[in-house]
Structures are given as C-alpha cells and as structure tokens.
C-alpha cells in the first residue's frame, strides 16, 4: 500500500467511446493501462486509499447508449449495467421481481454515492453487496466479447471473475432477472441482510441472502442461500441449502443450518473482526431470518 502511495501522481487520459465495439478495441489496445469506468465510486476509494494504482487511461462507458435502461419484457426485467443505484432503489418493477436485490441496493453507501455508483460497477467489482442477492435470484448477466452479446449465469460468471479467467476486454452490459416459479399456494420468500461496523453508510462486514418458497405447513422448497461481505468472495452455501430443501423449519434443523453455514462460509479476517466472528454472524443472520419467515407463515 505504501509503495502505491509513493508513486508519482498523474491525471489519467480519458477515452469516451460511443459504442461497445469502440470501447472493446480501446481496452484491447491499452491493455492493463486502461480501465472501464462509469460512476467510479469504488475505484476512486481504492485509488485514494492506495490499494490499487491509478491507471494511465480511463475508458468512460457513459457515452454508449442503452446501457442505463431498465425495461420489462415478458415478465422479465432487464437492467443496464450503467443504471445508477438510486434508480434501481426506486424502481417498482425491481422490487416486485427481485426484492432482495432492491434491498441490497438500498443498503449500499450514502445517497450521494448511489447517485453515481452503477449496478454494473457493483457487480464487476466481484465483491459488491448486491452479489449475494443476485446469486439467490438466479440472475443472468449480459456481456459483450468484442463481436457478440451473450448471457451468462451469475454464478458461472462470478466463478470466472474470482479465478481470473474472464477476458480483460469483456464488457458487462447488463443483467436479467425473472420472478421464480414455485409450487402453487406457496409463499415466496426473498431476503437480504447486511451487517457493518455501524448502522448505516458503512462498508459491509457480512451480507446474506435467502430465496425460496414456504408452504402453509412450513416446508421449504427451491431454497437458495448466499453470503459475502467486505472484499470477500460472494458464494452460495450449498450445505445449508441441502438441509433446508423439502424440510420443515424446526429449532433442531436451524441448529444444523447454523453449523453448516459456519463450516462452509469462506471469509477473511480484517483489522476489526475475525473470521470466526463473520462466520457466526452469517449463521445467526440466516437462522434468524428463516425463523421470522416461519413465524410470518404462521400468521397467514
């Protein structure tokens, strides 16, 4: 970190492409010296903290039309990568289609930051708070490879992002969401929770998300659970999912779910909290929200 701070400062060159092809060609020509940007809120924080070096060139994507649109199409919702978080927070269709994603967006930073930060930037960082919510919503991402736009499952894209195998020129152009279909008569549950070092406007320590359906007798189906937080890798928690799928929510089961989360959740320590604290927090958050879901079901 100190070495980065000791580097001489310069003003990066700013390129403003008008098309995806032009942006892709610029990145291919500039290589590691060029960085795609839009809101730049996370990148600015990293540069100021000295955790990453200031790039020599910025490729500003905001001049490319269509990348900030939010549209409904046949029950599916498409969100352009450059849609800012404030718009996502206010969008009624997002609240109906993927309430956990909208709650995650609501919890990110302060209003002034959300006015600049984009949903695509939060995803592209690989550590954004919205990622656990997107994982339990089975989101698909739209990407441009220099010739074609294609869709990828969120979970597959994230695995490549963390393994370092994503092509550096690839451009994230948006995401697709659709409300899940569950058993007839079952109630949909979709939850996102965040814990930080203070109540609001703070980076996350732990984030968790739950998606699925609950029947009148308290039985769960189509269960999806994910966790992340801070600069840790967002991940599905398959052991907890397997325990809950087709099961009735009872105290004994929730004890086993907590243990499964604690054993599988891969995270990291930082100057403020330990790995054990984060694992316990993730387990407690998930168990508490599942119990609330059961209590809510009893009141129906």
From TrEMBL:
<dbReference type="GO" id="GO:0071949">
    <property type="term" value="F:FAD binding"/>
</dbReference>
<dbReference type="InterPro" id="IPR051312">
    <property type="entry name" value="Diverse_Substr_Oxidored"/>
</dbReference>
<dbReference type="InterPro" id="IPR016169">
    <property type="entry name" value="FAD-bd_PCMH_sub2"/>
</dbReference>
<dbReference type="InterPro" id="IPR002346">
    <property type="entry name" value="Mopterin_DH_FAD-bd"/>
</dbReference>
<dbReference type="GO" id="GO:0016491">
    <property type="term" value="F:oxidoreductase activity"/>
</dbReference>
<dbReference type="Pfam" id="PF00941">
    <property type="entry name" value="FAD_binding_5"/>
</dbReference>
<protein>
    <recommendedName>
        <fullName>FAD-binding PCMH-type domain-containing protein</fullName>
    </recommendedName>
</protein>
<keyword id="KW-0285">Flavoprotein</keyword>
<feature type="domain" description="FAD-binding PCMH-type">
    <location>
        <begin position="7"/>
        <end position="182"/>
    </location>
</feature>
<dbReference type="InterPro" id="IPR016166">
    <property type="entry name" value="FAD-bd_PCMH"/>
</dbReference>
<dbReference type="InterPro" id="IPR005107">
    <property type="entry name" value="CO_DH_flav_C"/>
</dbReference>
<keyword id="KW-0274">FAD</keyword>
<dbReference type="InterPro" id="IPR036683">
    <property type="entry name" value="CO_DH_flav_C_dom_sf"/>
</dbReference>
<dbReference type="Pfam" id="PF03450">
    <property type="entry name" value="CO_deh_flav_C"/>
</dbReference>
<dbReference type="InterPro" id="IPR036318">
    <property type="entry name" value="FAD-bd_PCMH-like_sf"/>
</dbReference>
<keyword id="KW-0560">Oxidoreductase</keyword>
């Amino acid at each position: 970190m100190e070495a980065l701070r000791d580097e001489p400062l310069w003003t990066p060159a700013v390129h403003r492409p008008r098309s995806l092809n032009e942006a892709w060609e610029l990145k291919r020509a500039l290589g590691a010296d060029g960085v795609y940007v839009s809101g730049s809120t996370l990148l600015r924080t990293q540069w100021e903290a000295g955790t990453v070096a200031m790039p020599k060139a910025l490729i500003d994507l905001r001049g490319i039309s269509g990348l900030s649109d939010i549209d409904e199409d046949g029950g599916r919702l498409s969100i352009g990568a450059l849609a800012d978080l404030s718009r996502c927070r206010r969008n009624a269709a997002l609240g109906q289609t993927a309430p956990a994603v909208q709650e995650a967006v609501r919890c990110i930073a302060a209003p002034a930051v959300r006015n600049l930060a984009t949903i695509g930037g939060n995803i592209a960082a690989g550590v954004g708070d919205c990622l656990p919510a997107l994982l339990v919503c089975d989101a698909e991402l739209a990407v441009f490879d220099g010739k074609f736009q294609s869709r990828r499952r969120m979970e597959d894209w994230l695995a490549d992002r963390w393994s370092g195998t994503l092509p550096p020129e690839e451009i994230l152009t948006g995401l697709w969401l659709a409300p899940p279909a569950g058993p007839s008569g079952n109630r949909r549950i979709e939850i996102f929770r965040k814990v930080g070092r203070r109540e609001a406007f703070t980076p996350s320590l732990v984030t968790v998300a739950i998606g699925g359906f609950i029947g009148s007798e308290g039985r769960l189906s189509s269960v999806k659970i994910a966790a992340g937080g801070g600069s840790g890798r967002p991940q599905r928690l398959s052991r907890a999912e397997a325990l809950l799928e087709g099961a009735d929510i009872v105290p004994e089961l929730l004890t086993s779910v907590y243990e499964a989360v604690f054993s599988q959740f891969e995270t990291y320590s930082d100057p403020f909290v330990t790995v054990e604290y984060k694992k316990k927090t993730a387990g407690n958050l998930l168990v508490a929200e599942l119990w609330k879901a059961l209590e809510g079901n009893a009141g129906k």
